Amino acid sequence: MSKAIFLTVLLAGLIMVGTSTPVLGAQFDSRINPNNDDSPFKVSYLKTVFIEYPNGGALFDVLRSSDWKVSGTADATNPGVQELMMKLNQGIRDDGSQATISDLNVLYEFQLTGRSIQTSIDYRVILEGTITNYVITEDSQKKLVDLGWRGLSTTSSIMIDGIDINIPLGILQTQEPIIYNTFVGTEAEDVLNRELINADFILEQPMTNWHFLFDPTGINADASTFGLDDSIAGFVVSSWTMGESSIREGRQVERVYEAEVMADELYTVRSVQSSDQANLHIIGFGAIDVLDSVEIVGVTPTPPEDYMTTSTGGFPIMIIYGMAGMAAIGGIGFFIVSSRSMKNTSTEQQGIDPGHLVGYQTSASSGGYQTNRGEAQLKSDDNYAQTRSVYESTETTPETTPEIVPEQTMPSSDEEAACGCAASAEIGTECDCEMHGSCLCDATCHCNADICKDQVREMS
């Protein structure tokens, strides 16, 4: 019983892990061309903060009808963007990578929506920029590309146009002072001070756990996404994707932080930042490796000879062919065994020998209608008990037509006589013997039909 319970719990866990589809938090996307000095990247950071006031209170009075949005954009000429670039590059160096962000554009959008039970504040920051210095070394055969820069994060306050785009509590200080004053110095402050620009999990998830695919046919259709022209036709494109929640990749869950604050009423503050996703594309065939604790990719113009894979883990296509061949061999073996079994099956006659059967007509003319019905019976009834139908009734009732027993098997007493004609006469129906045109009964028959009377007279 305990084993069955354990297996049930394990199966339920596998289903939950394999089918979970979390909403995206940090979304990373980059397309790297090792033949260029720089390549584009884009990262989006999403978070939602809920302020709940189920018992009403001062925050309920202020926020229930509030609705505002603050948004803006800035480029590398903005001092706040320059500060952000410096912080991100410092984090990249701390992670052991040599890559550098050379250009950056920022889009931010914060929206508060008040409701009768809770207020939600949606935070969104999008970074689009250029990464350089990602090629570690190269020779005539391959290039080593640095991937240790993908965890773009900072814990510092980033002020752009007087708005802190990284710390959620900052926007409340300028837009909703009553919320700020209520939560400062409480556990809720720790929840609201958690940075928005955080992609650490994308760096912490090993590239070997990402799904890997490559296109060996050329990328004419995707050339524009790399800023290239048709001259790249025939090149291989390697792609890695992270974000699936499973046993292999690890279960990804929402990062939820919650605190309760007792002011004039009890308030609950909950910060929700969902799991991350990443897509990384590199021109060329890429093989994951590690150099000085930093993940890198060895890129070659074409895949190794006979390397054919279309799924994570470099699953060779020859294994698929081998499995198909084994299935074919198994099918052939099955048909051979079946054929031999059929040949060894006995062909002797089963059941009653047809030579022991005799046929007779069971239907004659009735009026102007003639049928050709017949039955087969044993020439001798010695083995009748062995061959009779198990459904044959052993008793007859007045409502059913009784059997016409052959003459040699008729009993001698009147009480046991089986006369179908007499039975027909008793219920006022037409005589059975008259229908057949001959009397099949013996001298015990008391039927009033002329044909039966003549038969009895002849027999007596």
Fold and architecture overview:
The protein is α+β, with helices and mostly antiparallel strands and 460 residues long. The protein has 4 domains: 17-132 and 151-209 and 243-278, no CATH class; 316-343; 352-364 and 373-392, no CATH class; 393-460, no CATH class. Helix content is 26%, strand content 28%. The strands form 4 sheets. Strands 1, 2, 3, 4, 5, 10, 11, 12, 13 and 14 form a 10-stranded mixed sheet that branches. A 4-stranded antiparallel sheet has the order 6-7-16-15, with no helix packed on it. A two-stranded antiparallel sheet has the order 8-9. It is elongated. The chain starts with a helix and ends with a helix.
**Helices and strands, in N-to-C order?**
HEEHEHEEEEEEHHHHEEEEEEEHEEHHHH
Beta strand count: 18
Tally of DSSP helical segments: 12
* Mean pLDDT rating: 77
Strand fraction equals 25-35%
Report the oligomer.
single chain
Question: Percentage of helical residues?
Answer: 25-40%
Structural class estimated from helices and strands: alpha+beta
Number of domains: 4
Radius of gyration, Cα only, in angstroms? 46 Å
Write the topology of this structure:
Blueprint: H1 2-19, E1 27-32, E2 38-52, H2 58-63, E3 67-74, H3 79-94, E4 100-114, E5 118-132, E6 135-138, E7 143-146, E8 159-160, E9 163-164, H4 168-175, H5 177-183, H6 187-192, H7 200-204, E10 211-215, E11 237-242, E12 255-262, E13 266-273, E14 277-283, E15 285-291, E16 294-300, H8 317-343, E17 357-361, E18 374-378, H9 384-387, H10 420-426, H11 432-436, H12 450-459
Parallel strand pairs: 1-14
Antiparallel strand pairs: 1-2, 2-5, 2-13, 3-4, 4-5, 6-7, 7-16, 8-9, 10-11, 11-14, 12-13, 15-16, 17-18
